[in-house]
Amino acid sequence: MGGETAGLEEALSRVVRLAGDHISALDSSMRQMAAHAWVGGGAGPFTQATRDQRTQLQQAFETAATQIAERIRALGGHPTTPSLSTPLPAATSAGGGYAGMNVEAMTRMVADLERAGHDLPAAGSQLSGALASAGVSVAPAQQVTGVGAWAADQATDLRRRLTVLQQRPDGDMANAAVVGFGLFGGSASDPSGLGTVLTAAAAGDPSALEKVVAAQNDGKDPTLASRVNSWWQLLDPAARQRLINASPQLIGSLNGVPAATRDSANRAYLGLRKDAIAKQLAELRQLEQRMKQGARQSHISLDINALEAEQRQIQAVEKSLAMGGVNGRPPALLLHLELGGLGKTAISFGDPDKADSVVTSVPGTGTTLEGIGGDATRAATLWDQANISAPSHTKIASIIWLGYEAPQLDAGILRAKTSVASPYLAQAGAGPLASFLDGLHSSHQPTGTPRFTVLGHSYGSVVTGMAAQARKGTFADQLILVGSPGTMAARASDLGVKQVWVGESPQDPVADLGHLPLSGGRNPISGLLTPWFPNGAGPFGTDPSNIAFGANRFLVRPTPAGFTGYDIAAHSGYWAQRSASLENMGFIINGQYDRVSKLPTPKQAPHPTPHLTPPPLPRPSSEPVSPPSPTPQSSPTPTGD
């Protein structure tokens, strides 16, 4: 009996010694996380995973010791078992989006994990021998070995990722989304479940890229662009080029891919499509000439018309891009391109990844890719104006974003889904716009504290408002709304941005749609609209120019015709050269709020408006709609231009 007890006590002593040497193997990693080696992104999940592994490690040694001690007691012995656990280092990693990384601390943590990955399997082997000699289960030894394998896997992956990050020119505190979702790729949450899809895309699967583009267009995952940015940064250059060569349009459409890369990919796609269309048209025209009149010839004519329409879209894009690099402007970048149908695009004057101030303009009703030249001119003009008043060495990027299907005037005002009077198309465009801004944030390279502005014009302000509400607090720093019929919000504060600025010409008929309350009946668009009330809630929420909305209002001078009535030209006149509205928008983009000509806010609104709830989607009706009456702004009338 005594000899057996002595053998068990020796085995227990071996377990205690092994525990003393190894139970703290992951404590250093926990301390590094507590010291904010990495904050944000997947830091929380990684910290929890490390804590869980540490707990398993210490429980394994405690279980091993307990098993042997119980055998000794069963034989009448009185074993002494010290505590085989250590206090948990406090970890305070923040959740949410990526905040920062300390390269030095991260390097130490990777080394600690490498050491644990080497030492723990050896400790597991020794523990297995001690438990076997005591005649008890060796499961705790297998658990120790498993923790070692986990640490080794983490160290190998992190070392590779950290090497990529150290090649970035960001300094010790790397401020890039690639860290948040690339450093601990498996630790960050993946609400869209696209981690495996991106892996397949890296292997050259074009259908996987299509799934990613589709996922970003629904706008449901605010982390997707950061994940794409991380995925792209961690690919080797050869893999990136293979993807661009194979699927230039898809790579050019991916939010989170650097702007310069998107431009290169989209221009490659533009050139390929231009050549292909020219070849197809030549073949179809020859075929059309050889054939007699008939159904098939009619079908060929339709194909020719569609290809000619794409040609005109390409020409419009090329002319818009040519506005960059002249008159002091930076080169234009093509950030998105979809040909066919109404078409879609995004063109930036200046590189948004390197800019101190980025303004994204969202156009409204009637916008098409074929007619994008006018909207591109406005974006270029906005860059010119902001650049004039910006402090020296300030880099500005001005983007025209047509990434949604804008309502067309010939669609009929009462068609439920395509009408300018319905928020349906704005809702469909809000997801792509929110995702596009996610991409601008994730690919931006640190230049101090950048300022992101989104300017919504006309129906584009409805899209902007809905996208802002989908990304409260992260969408942009400020919104500029001009000629806005509404944002689907009751208050400016509902939009979740720091600053909301509104400019409205007193002669703009579209902006005054925001004054029109809908019918109180169950079908809000049927029948004649209820009588006009200056501070009523219109079809898109509270009128942004209404004092009750709570936005900052800047001066927009009327045209020389005065306030005698509506002038549809006023709806497009906010970018007029040397106008007060253009100057004010330039100041706002630069954050020069003290230079903005503001409209005074009366101490009390003449017709207070209760908190409003955005109306439901309108349904079609065959009844006519009465136009609104001209409405001056409630502030003192400005004079002169």
UniProtKB/TrEMBL annotation:
Residues 603-635 have a biased composition (Pro residues). Residues 343-516 form the DUF1023 domain. Keywords: Hydrolase. InterPro entries: AB_hydrolase_fold (IPR029058), DUF1023 (IPR010427). One of its GO terms (molecular function) is hydrolase activity. Pfam families: Abhydrolase_8. Gene3D superfamilies: alpha/beta hydrolase (3.40.50.1820). Residues 598-641 are annotated as: Disordered. This is Alpha/beta hydrolase. It comes from Nonomuraea spiralis.
